[in-house]
Amino acid sequence: MSEQSTGSRPTLEAVADRAGVSRATASRVVNGGAGVRPPLVEKVRRAVEELGYVPNHAARSLVTRRNGAVAVIIAEPEFRIFSDPFFEQQVRGISRELTAHDSQLVLLWMEGPGDHDRIARYLGGGHVDGALAFSLHNDDALPAVIDGTRIPVVLGGRPAPGTDPAVPFVDCDNRGGAREAVRHLVGLGRRNIAHISGPDDQTSAIDRLHGYHDVLVDADPALLGRGDFTEASGARAMAELLDRRPDVDGVFVANDLMASGALLTLRERGLRVPEDVAVVGFDDMASVVRRTDPALTTVHQDVEGMGRLMVKLLMRLLDGTGPEAPASVITPTSLVRRASA
Fold this sequence. Notes:
12 strands; elongated
């Protein structure tokens, strides 16, 4: 067995000696290479565990040509990222899947267009193997910025028109979920159904608005309000809707945070939910639903699962398995009925 001073870091040679294999074989096992018989793989892994061997990242990168890190870019300012549970759930899914692939998450966010150069320099500097980007806005140059760095990328959410169609994305059935929400309100006998939409420069909000119009083709424009996916904007939009159309008896809100704000306004106006106004949200964020009164009926999307899917598509690009550009994924939604509608 190789000599190793007390307290020194175990070496790859020590692992090879303990396992009774060559250094080359030990290296292939440690670095995920192929062509090693299962019994030898097990011996090397056992030696790694017994010795507490930690691979040298720099040496491993030379072998695998991978950094073991992925950039996660959220195209929103910091205050949005830490106040909206949607981002928490998506990043949790991404983090858990990256951990399963022995890769690290590097979180980047954008305060404004001026951050494009900073992100381009970082991505182009060879620090990460690929990128995941979500919450994109239609006029955002970020997809083009990432494309210019020539690293693999997967987008969260249907990209805006004009984005390279070869770039894969993961999204939920926003339009179908919205249709189901509005049909539910119609089925409850509601006649004056309003919609509080999200920002008109994000495809998720656009798709949910289209789903509303799929059911209510001739909806009165006075029944349309707009927010920015924050609770305060939902409260404000609900107040404006009631001022214009005090006969509103149902409202489909484009996310749960805005729905929570709408419920606060309805309570302040002395209106009962669902007796006077039925409310349906979108997302099914547990942290939001738990504090709504009454409990919020909403459209469920698997946000954490979508984060995991983004990583899986990216790993296919990095590993070169399957088609050069994996097919994009649209995940299903479902209506979760609670007390608000």
